[in-house]
Amino acid sequence: MDGKGATESSNPNRVVESVPSAAVASASAPTKRMLAFHFLRALSRIHGAAGPARRRTRTIRRAAYSSMARATGPRRAWSRALLLQAQARARRSRAETSRRAAVLVRRRVVAGPAAAPAPARAAPVGGQASAAAARAALAPPPPPARQAGEPARSDALRRLVPGGAGMEYCSLLEETADYVRCLRAQVQLMQGLADLFSCQ
Asked: Coil, strand or helix: which one is 133?
């Protein structure tokens, strides 16, 4: 991508105006703008980041899901579940960055002149407890027993929709419809962006 394209991709407000309206036609007027804004802002944060293609693909996919959740807000169970997952990933990333920085500092101290050997240190209990608590919070609750008259596909829907593991069937159908609608809008937005930048 040339310099002009890189500049535009880092400016969410400018690119939102350039996205064809058909790219997100399935979303309502306020939602499509918020969806485009949050997704482009997420892309601007990872623009130019080094790393293997697989990691970049995973990062873009997570950015797409997070932008969907942020555009929808906490009014839906699936968006709340995605936001919690994003927050947990951010906490783990910050903790990993801090741990690596501490390791580098200790190595520099040990490598200094006339430095005493670094004593063995046990892993911080608090960090392990925090990580375990985060994993427990993200673990989906066991699905409720299938009610009489529920189709077998209800189990598949509970696995598909974020936060749907413990939902009652009628609520699950409502959440699924909203989730699929936002997914369709997100796919159309990403396709519109791909078409837009491929023409530059």
From this structure: helix
Cα–Cα distance, 52 to 155 (Å, whole number): 35
More confident call, 148 vs 69: 69
- Two structure tokens written together for 90: 């951010």
Please name the residue that has the structure tokens 């947990």. Answer: 88
- Residue 117 dihedral angles phi and psi, to the nearest 5°: -60, 140
Q: Measured between alpha carbons, how far is 22 from 185 in angstroms, rounded to an integer?
A: 10
- For the chain, domain boundaries: 3-106+157-198
The string of pLDDT tens digits covering residues 133-176 is 555 555 555 555 566 667 778 888 888 899 988 888 889 999 99
| Entry pTM | 0.58
Q: Residues 6 or more apart from 13 whose CB is under 8 A from it?
A: 37
